[in-house]
Amino acid sequence: MSMQSKLKTRGILMLISFMVVLGLIFSPIFPGSGGKVNGLDFMDNLFNMISKGSSYFIPKEISDSEKYAGKMIDVKVAMKDDKQAGETAQILGTVGVQAAASGKDLTVSGDMGAMLKASLADADAMFKNDGQPIADRYGLPEKAVMYNWHTLFGVVGKEMTKQEKFAEAKTFANIQKKALEPSYNYYGVEAKNWKDNMVLIIVALAFYVVYTLWYGFGLMWLFEGLGLKIGH
Asked: Which terms are listed as keywords in the entry (predicted)?
């Protein structure tokens, strides 16, 4: 058998085996929280869990916010729509902060510390996948509550900046990004420590590199076996 024939056979076998493995990757044969999932979903879930395990900043935000206990806030902000303004007023009223909605405009007056404390308690519960008490407390779906907190902190932070209350503005921004966003985005995801999954992470990354080279060499040998050469 000539060298070209060997290269062509080698390339074809590598590409066939590549496609077989690809078929296995897309097959629902990997363990998942809701049953069997395909390989892409399995790895996506794994890295989401590891990412969540590295995103728990809520205790620090709780500690940093304690200095605002008893500090009053009085702002008027615009929410996204009338419905959100009404829901947010309902949430704030539940935690003891005065709020009145008029269209999509929301007037907030009360203890800033109480507002921060309530939002962080909700964020902590959501981060721990315990959303039902939040829904029961406010009479709204838990994800809607967190979305409204997130929107509120964004517009209140901007209003604080306009009032040149930069420390307060930074606090609202930090809680929004480090507590409210992760708790909403990772709701329902189990947190895992990356150190406990080091072997699986290394295997996954190594497989990605090898699998990419596998396809590349398969094509190269097939083309060379067909008498085609890549040059420049």
From this structure: Membrane, Transmembrane, Transmembrane helix
Whether 146 and 77 have beta carbons less than 8 Å apart is answered as: no
Q: Which of 150, 95, 142 shows the shortest CA–CA distance to 118?
A: 95
Q: What angle do CA 167, 171, 174 make, to 5 degrees?
A: 135
Cα distances (angstroms) measured from residue 25 to each of 135, 171, 202, 212, 214: 38, 44, 18, 14, 15
pLDDT at position 170: 97
Pull the structure tokens for residue 67.
């200095």
The model's pTM is: 0.78
pLDDT band at 77 (very low <50, low <70, confident <90, very high): very high
d(CA 140, CA 144): 7
